[in-house]
Amino acid sequence: MNTKIQIQRNCLYLLLLLSISSSTQAQTDAAKKYLLSALDLMKSRSINKNKLDWNSIYKTSLEELKDARTIKDTYPIIRSAQSKLEDSHSNFFPPEAVASLLLGYKQTGQAFPYAKYKLIDGNYGYLSVPGIGCYNFKDWDEYASHILKGIKELDNNELRGWIIDLRENDGGMLQPMYAGLHPFFEMLQLVGSRDADGIDGYYGFKNHSVYYRGEKQHTFNIPTVKLRNRDKTIIVLTSRTTASSGEFITIAFSSLPNVKLLGDRTNGLTSDNTEHRLSDGAFLVLTEGTIINSKKELFDEVGKGIQPDILILDTQNREKIIDAAKNTIDQMKKK
């Protein structure tokens, strides 16, 4: 009887070991599959994909995987592989960070990035457009709608010109910025991106939607605004803080014939990022293109930034830079 019980116990113990081993192997296999999916995205989409030693990157990453047991264990390996992409802009957001981005500003207790606008001296339309760093579509609508509200109110006046302030725009999501400023841009090919294979694509806006390469990217629940003062001089204020999507907007404006850039050169993150959601909800953000303007000029030197037409280094001196903007508008109006 004791022998029979002992045999049963040994069998149960063996089954438990096999179950644990099987579970561990399944986790290891899932981690490997997850890592390879991330590496495959980098290899197929990175702006520098044709310049990198992918055999070395895969080999090193898989060697680092030997101690990984879970998907979470692959995060440092993915970040290490991303550092080899040499684009200074790609990123990785684990699921908990993505959850915060999806919740948006108000649900996470953050101040909402509303645009600021006012009429200066009765006939200069001033609009300050901040960056937006969330992936909540209701927030996108509110952000863009508030910009449009400011534009519409200012446009009800007989303006001498516009002052668009991007000095504090440190980037984030391009689509809501573009949607909010669509009265200036519409479907004109003002700013785009060139990928690693030399293929160009441009952004546009039509019927409440942002397009890229003619394909709809996102549809907004926002009003459509038509400008009365669209052809008036536009002065765009920039600084070293103006970055990423803020630089896309800078280039879009600079491609218009009635625009002057005034301030300091921009930050120099002049590349196009795309978010890829992985199987556990993490975001793999990859730099997949470089900014081009309407003339197909390429802004591919990281850190160089966009040079203003009128250089003012002291961009925090508000009175000085606003006076310079007004004077430039007046001078251009006389021509």
String of helices and strands? HHHEHEEHEHHEEEEEHEEEEH
Share of helix, binned = 25-40%
Q: Mean pLDDT across all residues, rounded? A: 92
Rg result: 25 Å
| Tally of alpha and pi helices | 9
What would you note in describing this structure?
The strands form two sheets. Strands 1, 5, 6, 7, 8, 11 and 12 form a seven-stranded antiparallel β-sheet that branches. A six-stranded mixed β-sheet has the order 2-3-4-9-10-13, sandwiched between helices. A hairpin with a 3-residue loop joins strand 2 (116-120) and strand 3. It is built from nine helices and 13 strands. Helix 1 (2-45) packs antiparallel against helix 2 (54-64) and helix 1 (2-45) packs parallel to helix 3 (75-83). It folds into two domains: 2-86; 99-334, 2-enoyl-CoA Hydratase, Chain A, domain 1 (Alpha-Beta Complex). The chain is of the alpha/beta class and 335 residues long.
SSE layout and pairings?
Elements: H1 2-45, H2 54-64, H3 75-83, E1 91-93, H4 95-103, E2 116-120, E3 124-128, H5 137-155, E4 161-165, H6 174-180, H7 182-185, E5 191-194, E6 200-206, E7 209-212, E8 215-219, E9 233-238, H8 245-254, E10 259-263, E11 271-277, E12 283-293, E13 310-311, H9 318-334
Parallel strand pairs: 3-4, 4-9, 9-10, 10-13
Antiparallel strand pairs: 1-12, 2-3, 5-6, 5-12, 6-7, 7-8, 11-12
Domain Tail specific protease: 95-313
GO cellular component, one term: outer membrane-bounded periplasmic space
Keywords: Signal
